[in-house]
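R.M. (postdoc): so does anyone remember the format we settled on? I'll just put the structure tokens first.
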């Protein structure tokens, strides 16, 4: 690296190439190192030439950025119900995906009566959003899901992966095809797909068992808001004796409504691995989540269906 480039690097000036020291009239034409974002280059050749000098600093900063992203509280994975406009519960027991319109609807609105624009009650088993009757057969379920797949609906693509994984609705049990659909859904931003890929690597479904890869995909899913993956990451850190990291994962999961992580924080407190303040903070966070998702309709749905859980 030239003396000019070295001096620029030390001064954190991002207007010249870290390798050759040349500046650009349009600084937007300089490309930042995608791993660390600390330095910029005129082209790939300069980046490759500078790699031996930059490698150590790059790996350190990239690891720091990864930690920041990993332990940042993600936004709610499912957003708000399109009907009642309240936050959708994080666990699958509090929500329903409608393949007719591609909406995720809270079970409170699924349970409530549906009316047309004139105030007349619509027949039961009708989508509360688009008023389409529920599918009656497995063939119809697959047909509707196929239509959503053609629209690049990540949930429909994920569902098809599940059909292959479990051999459902006429699909043969085919782990390799399941993984193909999971990867496709994950690339479209589906957190559950990355969680399922992690499970495949943990269990050896269609791939060799590889816990390191399972953790990698659970991290991707957790950063997108999947609480199952977040809980698993906490469990792994606990198993390794990394209690501080385990607690961080559990707290994030609790804020998104994971009762299992709350139970683990209680156990950590009882065993001296977490403070009373940690447990109190977790309890308050979980209660705040319950308050945010609760409604009279959802309470009625919960009372009508013992399997329905807020968390």
């Amino acid at each position: 690296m030239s003396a000019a480039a070295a001096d620029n690097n030390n001064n954190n000036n991002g207007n010249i190439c870290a390798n050759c020291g040349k500046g650009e009239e349009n600084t937007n034409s300089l490309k930042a190192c995608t791993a660390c974002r600390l330095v910029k280059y005129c082209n790939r050749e300069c980046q490759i030439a500078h790699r031996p000098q930059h490698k150590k600093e790059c790996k350190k900063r990239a690891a720091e950025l990864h930690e920041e992203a990993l332990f940042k509280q993600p936004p709610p994975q499912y957003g708000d119900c399109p009907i009642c406009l309240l936050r959708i519960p994080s666990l699958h027991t509090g929500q329903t995906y409608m393949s007719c319109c591609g909406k995720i609807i809270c079970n409170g609105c699924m349970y409530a009566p549906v009316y047309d624009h004139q105030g007349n009650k619509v027949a039961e088993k009708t989508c509360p959003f688009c008023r389409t009757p529920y599918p009656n057969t497995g063939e119809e379920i697959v047909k509707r899901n196929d239509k959503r797949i053609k629209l690049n609906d990540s949930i429909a693509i994920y569902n098809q992966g599940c059909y292959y994984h479990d051999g459902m609705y006429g699909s043969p049990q085919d782990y390799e095809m399941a993984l193909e659909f999971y990867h496709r859904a994950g690339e479209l931003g589906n957190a559950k797909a990355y969680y399922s890929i992690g499970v495949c690597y943990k269990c050896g479904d269609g791939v060799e068992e590889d816990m390191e890869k399972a953790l990698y995909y659970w991290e991707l899913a957790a950063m997108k808001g999947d609480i199952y993956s977040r809980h698993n990451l906490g469990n792994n850190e606990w198993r390794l004796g990394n209690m501080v990291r385990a607690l961080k994962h559990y707290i994030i999961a609790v804020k998104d409504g994971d009762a299992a992580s709350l139970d683990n924080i209680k156990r950590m407190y009882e065993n001296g691995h977490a403070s009373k303040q940690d447990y109190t903070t977790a309890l308050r966070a979980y209660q705040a989540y319950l308050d945010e998702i609760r409604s009279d309709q959802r309470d009625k749905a919960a009372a009508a269906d013992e399997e329905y859980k807020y968390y």
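R.M.: ...and that's the designed sequence above, right after the tokens. Also worth knowing: The first strand starts at residue 31 and ends at 32. The chain has 13 helices and four strands.
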